[in-house]
Structure formats: C-alpha cells, structure tokens
Amino acid sequence: MLQHAISSYGLEIAISCDPVRFENAQAPELDNIGCWILELENEDEFPDLIDSLLDSTEAAVLFGLGKAPERQSDEYPRWERRLFSKLRDEIGSLELLDSEDTLDKLGGDTSEHKGPLPLPSILSNTLQSGALEASPVERIWILAASLGGPAAVKEFLDQLPAGLPVSFIYAQHIDANFSSVLSKVLARHSSFELKQAQEGDSLKNGQVLMVPVDREMVLDEQGKIQFKDNAWPGPYGPSIDQVMLNIANHYGANCNVMVFSGMGNDGAIAAPLLKAYGCNIWVQSSDSCANSSMPDSVEATGCSSFIGSPTQLAGHLIKTIEQETILSGVGANASQGH
After folding, report:
1. To bridge 90 with a disulfide, which of 51, 60, 279, 333 should be the other Cys (CB 3.0-4.6 Å)?
2. What's 163's domain CATH number?
3. Which residues does residue 143 pair with via DSSP β-bridges, in sequence order?
4. Which residue, 29, 61, 91, sits at the end of a domain?
5. Residue 37 belongs to what H/E stretch?
C-alpha cells in the first residue's frame, strides 16, 4: 500500500525491503535515495536498525507513518494526502503539472479534426437563437484534471455538439501563468465558450468556466461566483476536492463530476460526500490516461458510475442528457393529461 501511494505521485521506488535485506544491502544500492520511510511493527526486534539507517544515509528519514488504511476506506485518501505532504516537505515540490511545452504541443496539433458527435434531434430546439443561453442551468459538470488532463479534456470537449444544455466548471492543476494559454488551446475546436471565471459570473449553458488557480472560488446564494481572499487548501491549486464541495453546496444533486488524467488523489475525499448528495461521478479509464492515479483513486472509493475514454465520456453525456430530456417530456405530458 505504501509503494502504491508513493508511485501514484510519480516517485520511483528505489528499494523496498525488510530490515534484514537492508542490513545486507551494498552501498551502491543505497545511492541517490531522496527519502527513506521506515515502518516497523515491532521496533524491539531490530534495536540497531534505526542507528544503522541514520549512519548510512544523508537523506531524510520518515518514521512511523502508521499502517495504511484499507484501499477502499474513507480514510485512505486522507492518509495518502498526509504522506504526500510529508514527502513534499522533505524532497521538495513534485512534478505533477503539465509544462508549457506540453500545452504548446497540444495547441499546435494539426491532425485532422473529426468534428463533434451529432446533437440528438430532441435537443435541436436549443439551437434556436438565444434558447440555449436563456434556458436555466440544470446540469452542471465539474471537469477535474491534473497531469495529462488538458489533452483529455480537449478530446472530450471537441466531441460535444453545439446546443447541448449543460454548463461546465473546469478545475485543472496548472501553473497560473499558463491558464490563458490553456483556454485558447481548448477553445480551438470546441463548440463551447471557454471563459476564465470572473467575480459575479453566473453559470450558463454552453459555457466552460475555468476555475482560478490562485484563489478559492465559491458561489453565493444567487449562484454567482465569488472569490475568497485565501488560496486553495492543499498542495496544488485549484483544490479539486474543495471545488467539488463548494459547487455541490449550492447545486446539490445537479452538480456532477468527471475526473480525468492526473497524479495524486485530489477528488477522492469529496467523492463520497457528493455521491451522498445524489451527484453523478464519472472517471476516465486508466488505459486512456497519461497518468491514471487521480481517476483511479476516485474509482477506488466506489463512487463512480461510469468509466470511459474522453470520447466515450462525451458520448455517454450526450446520451444521458437525451434520456433525461425524453423522461422530463413524458413527465410533463402526463401531468397535462392528468
């Protein structure tokens, strides 16, 4: 479990062993260690181990982090987050973000664009002038992503047709200096309007609001965006867990989440709470991710109801909205008949 957690943050396991193997390890095997984690069930059995370890390395040593909770338990994401914070304190910031070069390559993609999936005929009335923007926002989806997320989210948005009655809030771990570049890249083929969230904005159908990296964003009683003076909690901005909680606090079951590629476990803490609200939680499939740690962590909570590639997620969303529209129409007709 310890190895899994460390690997999920992009760190390499240089050596993992019992005390006997460590005592027999050769010096070259111990070179280039950035941090040791020592966990003993019974320290009395190895009285000289701690001194031996401290004498053989100049790297940081973490003692007694405690046995990892079960992978499926609610406590596991918090345990993993504490471990990550301790590792960051000892070995410095970890590379969990997409670089400017990655975004440039994504923006410079000249491959043939296939175009969006078709809009269901029952939703064609939303294409009438002003109908989509004027209609009330009833479906909110948080798009949550970290490393590898921009490419996945772009693929997802590119597949969505104009006229789809849904509003997106995009929470992406990224350097704040790259936010404007990211919005331009994502807007290249998308039928949706990409917009940096501004104070006083309201959610609109047909729009993707990008969450700021440096300030926590909340919704007031009217559903308008407000910014707090503080930064996001946690090691990276925006905190996806906090975004999920802040949006669900206003929209309840109408707030849904898709978790795309990324390292770490951001989103896994809030997922059970949103599921209790009645929210849908979907995740990107592991085989389609640049790094699947984040969606895998959310999937491990048992809260996700659909798994797919970005294109499959887009197709499932369109089908879901079509079915909801049909059912709501049947309900309205039944009420009128009664």
Report:
1. 60
2. 3.40.50.180
3. 170, 258
4. 91
5. strand 35-38
